[in-house]
Amino acid sequence: MDKDKNMIHAQEQKKNAVVSWTGGKDGCYSCHRAMAEGYHITHLLHFRNVRKRGSHELNNEVVRAQADAMEIPLIQKDFTSYEEEFKNTVRDLREQGERIDAAVFGHIETHKNLVDRICSEMNLELVMPLWKQDSKKLIQGMRESGLEIVVVSAKESLMGKEWLGRKIDEKFIDDLKRQDSSIDPCGENGEFHTLVTDAPMFKKKIIITGSDRVLQDGYWYLDIFGWTFQEK
Question: What is the pTM of this model?
Fold first, then answer.
């Protein structure tokens, strides 16, 4: 009984956090780092811009598959203002009785003012584990931590459709250097975007079973329509 009470007390002492989630490597790695630092992740927040399709947006159901693999609740919403939708979602959760102490973001170089403002107005601790870190070290850290990362979009002017579906491994990093030395190893300038198919907090691995390569607005996209889970 005392052991159970201690476990409950320990859980209560953890800070509850939501994670801004796109399905890609930066948000996932930030989530992993936040969990390692003791944060309890209550929800993944996945927002889609109704005005345009972004180069990092995925099939909603693939993102839901990630949440299922992690066994963490997912909230998916369309937005015209990311800031307002994020704040409204946190308000809704609190009104439902959730204690939300912090928000985790995967930003490396951009949007600091935006998330500062959100967290300040909502009385949230801002957690940005990747902020201003070296891209080469980050991508290496992601791989070493156990993230399995797949390229799902690539800028046509820099990378061809053959990059779609590739896993980020040592060969990928070497090939990227040979392709164009200006490409950031994390794709921080929009050169490519990713999907995480496995990570330490995934209970099951995602296997892509069906996809098409589509060119749209200067980006090659991996349009994923089939996947399955693999037990770990």
Answer: 0.91
